[in-house]
């Protein structure tokens, strides 16, 4: 039997501009309102244009997302924090001192480090998107709708 879905999940990375925003959008897409999903970063940065483009390719619009930091979160409690950068991992572990929650580290490549043509950079972002999508579907499987 699949693991129970957590009630709330926070995805965190360094800038809340690429990885954590993609992950939150994907989890919301697959599980809708069954899980409260939020994302944040150690620092806030504008949502990356390449991230917007590759998510749009799969029908998910993240263009209106407003980046936020850990300190700007409206909800202070999460069942699970999934971090996607070492920096965010350290911050999440600090949060566990005052919050009972699980923390998972999904070391995820930072596509913003890739230089080159637009297509080269888009390919890097697609790889990150697809890696995150696979991790989400492995960790939070989409099964048949529950019987009522």
TrEMBL record:
Gene3D superfamilies assigned: 3.40.50.2300
GO biological process: response to arsenic-containing substance
Signal peptide: none
Name of the protein: Arsenate reductase ArsC
UniProt KW keywords: Arsenical resistance
Domain Phosphotyrosine protein phosphatase I stretches: 7-142
Domain of life of the source: Bacteria
Stored InterPro entries: Ptyr_pPase (IPR023485), Ptyr_pPase_sf (IPR036196)
Keyword Protease attached: no
């Amino acid at each position: 039997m699949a693991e129970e879905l957590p009630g709330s999940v926070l995805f965190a990375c360094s800038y809340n501009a690429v990885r954590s925003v993609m992950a939150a959008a994907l989890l919301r897409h697959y599980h809708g309102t069954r899980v409260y999903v939020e994302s944040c970063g150690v620092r806030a940065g504008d949502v990356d244009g390449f991230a917007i483009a590759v998510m749009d390719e799969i029908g998910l619009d993240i263009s209106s997302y407003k980046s936020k930091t850990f300190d700007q979160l409206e909800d202070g409690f999460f069942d699970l924090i999934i971090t996607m950068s070492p920096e965010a991992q350290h911050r999440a572990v600090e949060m566990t001192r005052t919050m009972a929650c699980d923390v998972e580290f999904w070391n995820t490549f930072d596509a913003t480090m890739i230089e080159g043509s637009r297509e080269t950079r888009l390919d890097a972002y697609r790889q990150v998107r697809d890696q995150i999508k696979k991790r989400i579907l492995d960790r939070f499987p989409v099964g048949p709708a529950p019987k009522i």
